[in-house]
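FORM 12-B: Structure-to-Sequence Request
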């Protein structure tokens, strides 16, 4: 009898503890499912393209926004998410569409996601008057992009995406430059640029944003400076799905490879307890912060003494999915080199 009572009390205590601990996490997760944009039927980007062809072309040719719900890596990760019993039951895939765009539209982050949907039963120029023109004020606020580009783990409260706080600590922010000052700066047609470039599609956008300099060999010590001269945020920016890799190949007098090393820069997280799959608490952050100059220092093996006369250093980005972060062997894409420098030692 007494034993049963004790067992009963123990179970009650355990349940109370579980609910008290889990409830805030549960409600935060439910809040993540609320779309970060206005809901409603979309006319689609081709409708806007009738009169905004230039902006449409930039968006559809360059921006990953345009493929945010149809890209291969999104679909792969979504499948894994749906196969995960816990996440699929309690969180559901609505959480993905809260940022990646309307499920039904297959256009990802399209015009209406950012600008709002077309008002029904009035001429389009009426929507412009009551919504699109006044709406620009909202869109130009300094935390507009952060709606989707900032993400905190509901459990650990660590920043999974941190581009907003990286920017806040940057030289650009202190000069009053926002995301738009750089990413939407007018380019060819006198209109705000809508290409939102990414290394995934075009690495040349990173030209001059990172520097490799002052390589020195004082045997067995090799040092090299790496500097993030992109003053808007960290390199790589934001989250765990992108790793910047510095590869150094050491050559002898005849240009033959003697030795090679790889250094990685980025963020690594533990996955959610029990559920897995979703990044949760930060374990390591080697991002180069805005304006940061870091000195890489390596000890070369004794067998290399006298054999090395040149170093070729290359920087690339690797795209990794959340559950394989940190593991560049499982990258789903590798960029072309952002930068290659040769140093005579
Ligand atoms: C029938 C042609 C037409 C269509 C279709 C159209 N626009 Fe426009 N839009 C215009 C014109 C013309 C202007 C310039 C208005 C001005 O300068 O007064 C404009 C301006 C804008 C502006 C800048 C704000 C302003 O009023 O100056 C935004 C934002 C915009 N459009 C968004 C959209 C979106 C989003 C869509 C699709 C849902 C769209 N437009 C569809 C003709 C169109
Ligand atoms: C409604 C949510 C949403 C808003 C608002 C938004 N983005 Fe995005 N953005 C995304 C998503 C989702 C992706 C990832 C697309 C993919 O790779 O599938 C993305 C990708 C990007 C990329 C490419 C990133 C990469 O890793 O290659 C850039 C750059 C970018 N956004 C900049 C901006 C800027 C600047 C703003 C503000 C003007 C902004 N975004 C507003 C959701 C949003
Ligand atoms: C808070 C908004 C937000 C939520 C919620 C979100 N994403 Fe994203 N996702 C983004 C942004 C923004 C990026 C661009 C990467 C960056 O800025 O680091 C991105 C990038 C990705 C990428 C990497 C694309 C690549 O190839 O580099 C995948 C895959 C992805 N998201 C899938 C998902 C899935 C599946 C879910 C739901 C479980 C989800 N995302 C939930 C905003 C979000
Ligand atoms: C990721 C969010 C986002 C998406 C997607 C987006 N826009 Fe914009 N758009 C903005 C922001 C922010 C501004 C204000 C830019 C500024 O003031 O520099 C803007 C400005 C504009 C303007 C005013 C042009 C100017 O030079 O001031 C037009 C027109 C426009 N957008 C049309 C479109 C159309 C058409 C699409 C779809 C093909 C689209 N936008 C997709 C965020 C977005
Ligand atoms: C001082 C200029 C500057 C500012 C300010 C800035 N960025 Fe960037 N950002 C860049 C440059 C340059 C790149 C390299 C790719 C490009 O040109 O889009 C980049 C890259 C990115 C990427 C990743 C693209 C990739 O290929 O990995 C994202 C996401 C991003 N920025 C989002 C933002 C957001 C959100 C803000 C505001 C909080 C912001 N940026 C502020 C200049 C800036």
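FORM 12-B RESPONSE
SEQUENCE OUT:
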């Amino acid at each position: 009898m007494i034993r049963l009572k004790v067992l009963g009390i123990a179970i009650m205590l355990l349940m109370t503890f579980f609910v008290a601990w889990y409830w805030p996490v549960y409600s935060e997760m439910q809040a993540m499912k609320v779309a970060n944009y206005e809901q409603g039927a979309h006319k689609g980007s081709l409708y806007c393209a009738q009169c905004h062809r230039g902006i449409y072309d930039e968006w559809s040719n360059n921006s990953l926004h345009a493929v945010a719900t149809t890209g291969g890596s999104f679909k792969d990760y979504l499948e894994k998410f749906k196969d995960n019993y816990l996440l699929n039951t309690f969180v559901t895939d609505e959480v993905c569409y809260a940022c990646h765009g309307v499920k039904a539209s297959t256009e990802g982050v399209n015009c209406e996601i950012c600008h709002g949907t077309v008002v029904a039963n009035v001429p389009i120029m009426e929507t412009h008057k009551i919504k699109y023109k006044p709406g620009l004020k909202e869109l130009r606020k300094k935390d507009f992009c952060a709606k989707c580009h900032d993400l905190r783990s509901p459990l650990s409260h660590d920043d999974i995406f941190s581009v907003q706080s990286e920017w806040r600590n940057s030289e650009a922010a202190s000069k009053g430059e926002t995301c738009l000052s750089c990413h939407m700066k007018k380019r060819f047609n006198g209109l705000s640029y809508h290409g939102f470039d990414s290394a995934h599609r075009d690495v040349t956008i990173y030209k001059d944003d990172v520097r490799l300099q002052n390589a020195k060999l004082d045997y067995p010590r090799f040092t090299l400076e790496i500097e993030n001269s992109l003053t808007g945020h960290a390199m790589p920016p934001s989250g765990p799905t992108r790793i910047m890799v510095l590869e150094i190949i050491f050559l002898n007098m005849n240009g033959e490879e003697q030795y090679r090393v790889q250094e990685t820069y980025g963020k690594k997280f533990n996955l959610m307890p029990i559920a897995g799959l979703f990044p949760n608490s930060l374990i390591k952050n080697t991002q180069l912060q805005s304006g940061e100059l870091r000195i890489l220092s390596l000890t070369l093996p004794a067998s290399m003494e006298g054999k090395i006369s040149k170093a070729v250093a290359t920087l690339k980005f690797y795209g990794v999915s959340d559950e394989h972060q940190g593991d560049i062997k499982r990258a789903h894409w590798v960029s072309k080199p952002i930068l290659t420098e040769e140093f005579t030692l």
